[in-house]
Amino acid sequence: MKKILIVNGHPDRESYNTQLQEAYKSGALQAGADVTEIHLGSLQFDPNLRYGYRKRMELEPDLLDAWEKIRAAEHIVWIFPLWWGTLPALMKGFFDRLFLPGFAFSYKENSMMIEKKLKGKTSRLICTMDTPIWFHTLYYRAAGVRAFRSMVLRFCGLKITGTTYIAPIKFIKPGGKEKGIQKVIALGKRLC
């Protein structure tokens, strides 16, 4: 049984991203996966890494619980909106506070090389945005998503299985949101 963690990075529990979270969960459960979830908007933590790496901040219980879920997962699905071309501030704060040296990666002694602590796990991104997909990828070159994939996930050892865009949300045609939900259910059924 594959252990899947779904992380919803939208702060609003009533957002379309929550519907996508439920859709992926539904598909994965149908495929026999063991599913756990984190909704960042429900966590109680300070998203500000106040001292950088100079001084370690005590991790709140919700962050410690989230870390245990990340450690236990084999596949992590990140569902989030792109705001200003990148992750919501709450999601960025989640990574700043939790993906720390000693947790998600470690510096090798007397070396610039790192040990990727999340190696062996896979990850998928499901992004919603108002920008048309073609414009986001051709004009903006998917800068925020590429940075997240390479400078956070791959840096820590996660292998990316793919990125799914559902857009443009603002101008979606009737039935378009349901089409997105069906697409995400299918991803869940494939456990990817």
What number of structural domains do the residues give?
A: 1
> How would you write the strand order of the largest sheet?
2-1-3-6-7
CATH class equals Alpha Beta
User: What letter string, H or E per element, gives the SSE order?
Assistant: EHEHEHEEEHHEH
CATH homologous superfamily classification: Flavodoxin domain
User: How does the helix and strand content classify structurally?
Assistant: alpha/beta
| Strand residues, percent | 15-25%
| Broad shape | globular
Largest sheet: 5 strands, parallel
Unreliable stretches (pLDDT < 50, length at least 5) are none
* Discrete helix count: 6
Give helix % range.
25-40%
Rounded to the nearest angstrom, the radius of gyration is 17 Å
By CATH, the topology is Rossmann fold
Number of strands: 7
The N- to C-terminal Cα distance equals 13 Å
Descriptors for this entry?
192 residues; alpha/beta; Rossmann fold; five-stranded parallel β-sheet; two-stranded antiparallel sheet; 6 helices; 7 strands; 21% strand; globular
Describe the structure.
- The protein is of the alpha/beta class and 192 residues long.
- It has one domain: 3-Layer(aba) Sandwich (Rossmann fold), CATH 3.40.50.360.
- The chain contains six helices and seven strands, in the order βαβαβαβββααβα.
- The protein has helices at residues 16-30, 61-72, 89-98, 133-138, 143-153, 176-190, and strands at 3-8, 34-39, 75-81, 105-107, 114-116, 122-128, 159-166.
- Strand 1 (3-8), helix 1 and strand 2 (34-39) form a beta-alpha-beta unit.
- Helix 1 (16-30) packs parallel to helix 6.
- Belongs to the NAD(P)H dehydrogenase (quinone) family.
- Residues 2-179 form the Flavodoxin-like fold domain.
- This is NAD(P)H-dependent oxidoreductase.
- Keywords: Oxidoreductase.
